[in-house]
Amino acid sequence: MAGAGPSLTDGHGNFHGDVQSLYAHARLDEVEVETRAQIERALAAGIDVTHLDSHMGTLQLDVNYHDLYVRIAAEYRLPIRMATRAWMRSMGMGQILDQAEALGVLAPDHFWYGGPSSPEATPAYWTDVLRALQPGVSELYVHAAVDEPEMRAISDAWAQRAADYRFFTAPSTRSRLQDLGITLIGYRSLRELQRRLHAR
């Protein structure tokens, strides 16, 4: 907690345990102070910050928080992780899309949130997703992880995470990406494009 205000923590001094508890108790001005403090701490540590995101979607699931998220991203000249435009409009957050465009904040064109029904279904599921990708920049939201005792201890979904890791690190997947004409990039590419398009 880089600079947490009292409304951001529970009776034990920890961040609230879930998004709804935060929304029920937090003051938006203290959320802004904490968000800025975390970014500044990363920059001061020499981390090459490529984009903004928030754990569990905290800054993305409420229109007031999302407004803050976009404003801070514009100030730091960083792209953001954002849900698909259709979902944003269906949730009454179309003004956030307009705000991001007006401030020159970029995000992937498509955001895939979902996953296989089981570890065994993983190769077929993700292969179908890759084949169905549309033109533009797509982000696949994946919790891939190495199968280790620590992962098994902290997540009931360890087997799925391990299966995702095996799929996305397999040489056959890299070959499949090449066959489908998919180019791998990271948020750094979006950041550099955003800064070129909106040079100060």
In brief, what are we looking at here?
With 200 residues, the protein is mainly alpha-helical. The protein contains ten helices and two strands, in the order αααααβαβαααα. It has a two-stranded parallel sheet.
Task: Explain what this protein looks like in three dimensions.
The protein is mainly α. The protein has 10 helices and 2 strands. The chain has helices at 19-25, 28-44, 63-76, 85-90, 94-103, 122-132, 149-154, 158-169, 171-180, 187-197, and strands at 110-113, 138-141. The protein has a two-stranded parallel ribbon with strand order 1-2. Strand 1 (110-113), helix 6 (122-132) and strand 2 form a beta-alpha-beta unit. The radius of gyration is 19 Å and the shape is globular. The model has no long low-confidence stretch (mean pLDDT 94).
SSE blueprint and pairings:
Elements: H1 19-25, H2 28-44, H3 63-76, H4 85-90, H5 94-103, E1 110-113, H6 122-132, E2 138-141, H7 149-154, H8 158-169, H9 171-180, H10 187-197
Parallel strand pairs: 1-2
Helix pairs in contact: 2-3, 3-5
| Arithmetic mean pLDDT | 94
Order of adjacent strands in the largest pleated sheet: 1-2
State the distance separating the first and last CA atoms.
32 Å
Order of helices and strands: HHHHHEHEHHHH
The helicity comes to 40-55%
Shape estimate: globular
Structural class: mainly alpha
Helix count equals 10
- Total count of strands: 2
CA-based gyration radius: 19 Å
Strand percentage = under 5%
- Specify the biggest β-sheet: 2 strands, parallel
Flag low-confidence runs.
none
